[in-house]
Amino acid sequence: MACEHILLIDDDEDDRDFFVLAIQDFSPYLRCSYFNDAEKALHALMAGALKPEIIFLDLNMPLMNGQDFLKSIKKQNALAEIPVIVYTTSSDPHTIQSVKALGAHHFITKPTNLNTLKDLLEPFIA
Q1: 55/105 Cα distance (integer angstroms)
Q2: CATH number at residue 90
Q3: Mean pLDDT in residue range 79-89
Q4: Scanning 39, 45, 67, 111, which has the fewest C-beta atoms within 10 Å of its C-beta?
Q5: Confidence band (pLDDT; 50, 70, 90) for 3?
Q6: Is 123 exposed, middle or buried, given 0-12, 13-18 or 19+ CB atoms closer than 10 A?
Q7: CA 114 to the chain's CA centroid
């Protein structure tokens, strides 16, 4: 069964637009919610206002960074099982190891090519 609702948390508007462009061809039923602030996203999730099947999370954001969001969501019983895919510009092996230890299901380094992004996203949302 294809994913129907994903959540993207990324403070960069261009990166959000690029991500949304990449997922448009997967399914007419796929809905993408997004936040540019991880703290607001966490509050919406905790309040039950969102129920995504998967979360794509940038790491480098003001206020609450991606690692702090990941730590917080994994402490919430109702949210801990939602797969979180780190989606960031970093490709540092230490960062990858660190976020996986915090509970990230996978790590994607943001590509600059739309077709490459589609190929990277397909296993998670198609």
Answers
A1: 10
A2: 3.40.50.2300
A3: 96
A4: 111
A5: confident
A6: exposed
A7: 17
**CB neighbour list of residue 7: distance below 8 Å, 6 or more residues apart:** 32, 33, 34, 35, 41, 45, 50, 52, 54, 55, 56
- What is the total count of domains within the chain? 1
CA distance 118 to 61: 23
Neighbouring-strand partners of residue 109: 88
d(CA 45, CA 79): 8
The two tokens of residue 45 are: 């999730």
Residue 25 has pLDDT above 90, yes or no: no
Q: What mean pLDDT do residues 66-93 have?
A: 95
Could you tell me which of 13, 16, 14, 7 has the C-alpha nearest to residue 40? 7
In this prediction the pTM is 0.95
Burial class from Cβ neighbours inside 10 Å (0-12, 13-18, 19+) for residue 33 reads middle
